[in-house]
Each structure stands twice: as C-alpha cells, then as structure tokens.
Design goal:
This protein is of the alpha/beta class. The chain contains four helices and seven strands; from the N terminus they run βββαββββααα. Strands 1, 2, 3, 4, 5, 6 and 7 form a seven-stranded mixed β-sheet that branches. Helix 1 crosses helix 3. The longest helix has 15 residues.
C-alpha cells in the first residue's frame, strides 16, 4: 500500500475569502488533547507562545502541552520558531499530512515583520492564527469569528473558532 506525506504551507499575507470551517478536511487523528507544542522561539518572544496556546486551550477539544526544544519538525507535535526570513511572507504553518491526517506541524514566524521592534500583541495574534491553522482551521475574514478572532485578523480565538474545533474533533 502506497502512503505519502504531503506538506501544506499556509501563509499569512492577505485575507482569504474562505469560511473558517474545517480547512480542506485536514485534522489530527484524534482530538489534539495533550498535543506537544515545542516552543523554539528566541528569548525576545517571552510568554507569547504560552499566551496564544492558553487561548486555544479554552476549547475542550484542544490542549497544547508546551515544551522548549529545537526548531526541527517532529511527528505528533507542533513546533513554533521565529527568525528573519526576509521580505515576502509574514508567517506560515507547514503541515505534514498523510491521507488528510495531520502528522506534525512547524510554524515559522518571520521576524522581518514580527521581530523585537513589533508590538507584543502583533506577535501574539500571528502566533494565535498559525496555531489555529495547525488545528485545521482556515482564515475567517467574515463576521462569524467575531471582530477579535485571530483567525479573522484579530487577537484571540473567537466563539466560532471554538465551535469549529468541536465540530472537527468533538467535545
């Protein structure tokens, strides 16, 4: 039986017209409760990953468990890194996919746009959005996510984001 891994790159550059629902059907095999989140960000990102993860952990369908580690892909984990990748893309999430099942993810946030000169809330919002992508959520520029949803260019997950996670993974 032939199996393959497809790497999907989600970028944060311009809003999508897509709904916030389940992004192309990609999801973790089971609810990502106890999912390892490896914080490989530099020292000038204090508490940002923990703050964003805590907002997603409000959902009963999600629980990120944060550990420090290197910026290297790891199966059954989300790894988040930052560096100056130059002009072009503000951030992106790379998903390792096998038959629509997420096997691992790496988030790379571009310090060219979100470095130490950037206000903390901007770094937190982009981290929140990329974590949402690793859970299977798409951008939500509509009013469904609420005016402050990080999937719709706000600051934190909105009620619709939590509803989508329950639809994808169950309670």
């Amino acid at each position: 039986m032939l199996a393959f891994t497809l790497v999907i790159v989600l970028t944060t550059a311009f809003p999508s017209e897509a709904d916030a629902s389940h992004w192309f059907g990609y999801k973790w095999r089971s609810a990502p409760v106890g999912l390892t989140l490896i914080d490989a960000t530099t020292g000038d990102w204090p508490g940002i990953v923990a703050r964003a993860a805590a907002q997603w952990n409000v959902s009963s369908a999600v629980e990120f468990v944060i550990k420090r580690g290197p910026c290297q892909p790891k199966m059954n984990a989300v790894v988040i890194c930052n560096a100056n990748y130059g002009a072009g893309v503000a951030s992106f999430a790379r998903l390792s996919i096998n038959r629509l099942i997420i096997r691992g993810a790496v988030i790379q946030i571009n310090d060219y746009y979100y470095g130490p000169q950037t206000y903390i809330e901007g770094r937190w919002a982009v981290t929140c959005q990329e974590l949402g992508h690793t859970l299977g959520l798409d951008h939500d520029p509509s009013a469904l996510g609420g005016p402050y949803s990080c999937m719709g260019w706000g600051w934190q997950p909105g009620p619709h984001d939590y509803e989508q996670l329950l639809l994808i993974y169950g309670p």
